[in-house]
Amino acid sequence: MFRYLICSVFALQISINWCGQRSEYFSIYEEMENLAPVQSPVFEEKFESLVQCLNACVLRRDCFSIFRKSCSHTCEGFGNPFLFYKGYIMSNGTWHVQKVAETCSLKGYTWDPTYRICYKYHSTGMTISEARSKCRDEFARLLLLTSDRVYDFSVWFIKTYSTGSLYVQGSRETIFISEYFDNRGREMKNLKWSSGEPSYDGKYIRLNTDAYRLEATPGTTDRGFICQRGQL
Question: 98 with 78: CB under 8 angstroms?
Fold first, then answer.
């Protein structure tokens, strides 16, 4: 029996029951819309309906998410999308992730349903190089503040938990240029800099606690940081 339930304007949650044996829940993961992983899918087939596509994933123990291409109705099944650490390729379609909170939770990560982010806060201070390495070891990256959604999350987190300033994602080649780039080499737009920033202080970025704005930093002081999974 197939049962549809619209949970919110942001997510379609689908419950699939197969012969009464398994019940799995999928939600649209729109933060990764039109991005497909480089690695090979665990299966790839064409299905007329989304339910058939999701059902094919449910029947496999190595499938936790599907990417459904919009025009061809091709359904690609993948493992845990929060553990993708390779690059992404553009492909027109939508992601549906199985049990988002549980899928996110490996290695102590948390799913925040309000800000729709999979994250882990590290309170033990590190240099930014150490922080970036730590995130990579956990199949994640430093928090990327190019969207209002993630920026609002970071400000809320600092205020709620009194963390102090945080290292975030972004670097530039030299202190004499103003353009910053993320871990995938994309120029970062919509950055909320403090007045007079980015300065010549360093090549990296921290989020301060004065006005919750960004500042250039050399990254040599030990600070807390947040690792993020499944980001664009």
Answer: no
> Exposure of 142 by Cβ count < 10 A (0-12 exposed, 13-18 middle, 19+ buried)?
buried
How much is the pLDDT for 38?
80
Nearest to 166 by CA among 125, 198, 117, 203: 125
Give the model confidence (pLDDT) of 15-51 as tens digits.
555 444 445 688 888 888 888 888 889 999 999 899 9
Bridge partner list, 171: 181, 204
pLDDT single digits (tens) 66-77: 999 988 889 999
147 vs 114: CA distance, rounded Å: 15
**What is the CATH topology of the domain spanning 109-229?**
Mannose-Binding Protein A; Chain A (3.10.100)
At a CB cut-off of 8 Å and minimum separation 6, what does 9 contact? none
What residue ranges do the domains of the chain occupy?
Answer: 2-103, 109-229
144: closest CA among 113, 104, 185?
185
In CATH, the architecture of 2-103 is 3-Layer(bba) Sandwich (3.50)
